[in-house]
Amino acid sequence: MSPIDDVVSLSRLQFAATAMYHFLFVPLTLGLSWILVIMESVYVMTGREIYRDMTKFWGKLFGINFAMGVTTGITLEFQFGTNWAYYSHYVGDIFGTPLAIEGMMAFFLESTFVGLFFFGWSRLSKVQHLGVTFLVALGSSLSALWILIANGWMNNPVGAEFNFETMRMELVSISDVIFNPVAQVKFVHTVAAGYVTASMFVLGVSAFYLLKARDVPFALRSFAIAAGFGLASTLSVIVLGDESGYTAGEVNKVKLAAIEAEWETEPAPAGITLIGLPNDAEERTDYAVKIPYVLGVIATRSLDTQVTGIKDLKKLHEKRIRNGMLSYAALTRLKGGDKSPEARAEFLRLKDDLGYGLLLKKYTPRVIDATEAQIKMAVNDTVPKVAPLFWSFRIMVGLGFLFLFIFSASFYFLIRKRLAQQRWLLKLAVVAIPLPWVAAELGWVVAEYGRQPWTIAGILPTHLSASTLQASNLYFSLAGFIGFYTLLLVIEMGLMIKYTRLGPSALHTGKYHWELEHKEAA
User: Global pTM?
Assistant: First the structure.
């Protein structure tokens, strides 16, 4: 591995580590904020104090998680300048816009009203405090929206053009960036996944109280809200996951083919591989079990449109790389002072393939003179390793259907008033508390690893995006980040466990006596 590859790999690892640590806190913030809105709305409408206590108790856990999320999230944006300087230079005009809006519009809104949420109970009316809670939830969602608009642009770079005079991408349509279909699908899918995470958290903790026969009225009401909200959210995630597949089929055919280990272009409609062992070296899937037609319907919404396989995509990429070599040659002429209409026209004709030509920079500084062997290596780079994507996606989907079962069974037995007898279900809900985080992290592996070898799909390769750094500095900072973030995670887990064990009764000592609990539970 060359020193440059070392720096790129370490920069990727550091960003991945900080992002995945940060996303341990994000889903709970997104979902729990809206569960608080539901609970406090019931309190405002009914005046029943138990719903106020529910809002305050779950709000305390929300506050711990929110503080850790802010702490771990701030460093991510700084890494674009420290570790990914050329990336920031090349696309900063476009990528920086939604991040700036997120900071001014969403983060400040959310942070300001979080304080009012905790300290405004005795200073605001019921309706005013509910408004504050709603604005906290709205701020969380808006923050996710603008960040995912930026991330969606990395996967589908619309609304921007390359300027050969400045050697940068420049924004030409902010509306195209905002209404990017990839960004919109990412947003609704991600926030729905956050709703599932928070619902499973509330459901599992409430199930723990029910198993211990403590704070039963509180636990039953929390369990009921989590079951209903979680069921609706899980169904949304499944439906929106289908929409994500369709969007990927339109704008990121490589990612879709890699996820499904679709090596060959099959006659339409393609079948979906339920299970198998992807073999990257031989470009085949061993012991594959397929369901006919399903992939074609999901990816194309039709029965007569093909899903292009990896082998055919590589042939297309080879053509684009060769065009990219010509585009790079035309750009070199322009930068060398040839401003003739012919030179400009030649570059404009080929500029969409410039990024593919830049893939050769990994193997030679002279893109124009790349050898056949170097072109072949660049072609192979255009498809990420299939096995990690294949298995990450299937584990994520399998967990999604497990969540659907848990929420459906919980909702059913609640309606039938037979929940107390289903101790197996309550135990399963407790055990399942961490699983939505596993699914969410795997979702980001699919989204981000599946975009490789690009930081900006089709435009800027990852190996060109990193800063000029010393590998030793990256080893030091990577160790520091992992150590500090692990400490924060341990602190959060300790606080969460502490206040969960104290339970809602700690809000009002002796408030819920056992006779009332057993009466309401019956």
Answer: 0.91
